[in-house]
């Protein structure tokens, strides 16, 4: 576990997405992405990288409809690999499968992008060491440059055996309808800091990470919340170091008028775009 994905920081733990065909999606996430199946029922499958921690859960809603355009919701969830060698192994595997992908160097990280069979966005990346990041006026420098794919492949050596056990959920990037309202929710409510800006996008984090959550209006200003039974994001979890830290955030959420309800051992809130968040410890 790296320094940004443990206490006292608040970070993304698990992502739950809706898919059209559960069996087909499970096959994709096992064979192409390299996750392991933890448990499966008729309409739900829990996937893991280390054999015990849920990382991604897939659900097939009754009367499911395809992903809707120009709506808020998931842009991508981002799987963080422990090393550059792991990224090289994953890239080599993708090339061998022939699965379509995109790639970028973001200064702070090196990333590969692909979509699952339903159009849910996935990023698989590795972070550069923190000391190599550049900060100016409390903002971290990020860009979208060409990836050094040859250099990454040169570090690959191992036979592909799926994602390494140290793989975690690095961040989530969301479409929202109102950037300012969403920014207020994540800063004043959740307590994240703004660490970078991009055209029509804001990057937010805890503990000076390059981002635990990013928000954008790339689906259009005023993009509505998608229907409940549509493919896309169901919910994601934010992990708190202890109950005290969570209580503090819950008070902040109440102060800004955000919805909050208890479900079992966790609390549930929604950002202004309707993206559902589970607050867990």
Summarize the structure.
The chain is α+β, with helices and mostly antiparallel strands and about 280 residues long. It is built from 5 helices and 18 strands. The longest helix has 14 residues, at about 85-95.
Kindly describe this structure:
- With 281 residues, the protein is an alpha+beta fold.
- 20% of the residues lie in helices and 35% in strands.
- A hairpin with a 2-residue loop joins strand 9 (135-136) and strand 10 (139-140).
- The longest helix has 14 residues, at 84-97.
- The overall strand count is 18
Helix content: 10-25%
Distance between the termini: 16 Å
| CATH topology value | 2,3-Dihydroxybiphenyl 1,2-Dioxygenase, domain 1
> Which structural class should the secondary elements be placed in?
alpha+beta
Kindly give the count of domains: 1
Q: Which terms summarize this structure?
A:
281 residues; alpha+beta; 2,3-Dihydroxybiphenyl 1,2-Dioxygenase, domain 1; eight-stranded mixed β-sheet; 5 helices; 18 strands; globular
Sequence-ordered SSE layout with sheet pairings:
Layout: E1 11-18, H1 22-33, E2 36-40, E3 44-48, E4 54-59, E5 73-80, H2 84-97, E6 102-105, E7 109-115, E8 121-127, E9 135-136, E10 139-140, H3 149-154, E11 168-175, H4 179-189, E12 193-198, E13 201-205, E14 213-216, E15 232-239, H5 243-255, E16 261-263, E17 266-270, E18 276-280
Parallel strand pairs: 1-4, 5-8, 11-14, 15-18
Antiparallel strand pairs: 1-15, 2-3, 3-4, 5-11, 6-7, 7-8, 9-10, 12-13, 13-14, 16-17, 17-18
GO molecular function, one term: dioxygenase activity
Pfam family, one: Glyoxalase
Keywords: Dioxygenase, Oxidoreductase
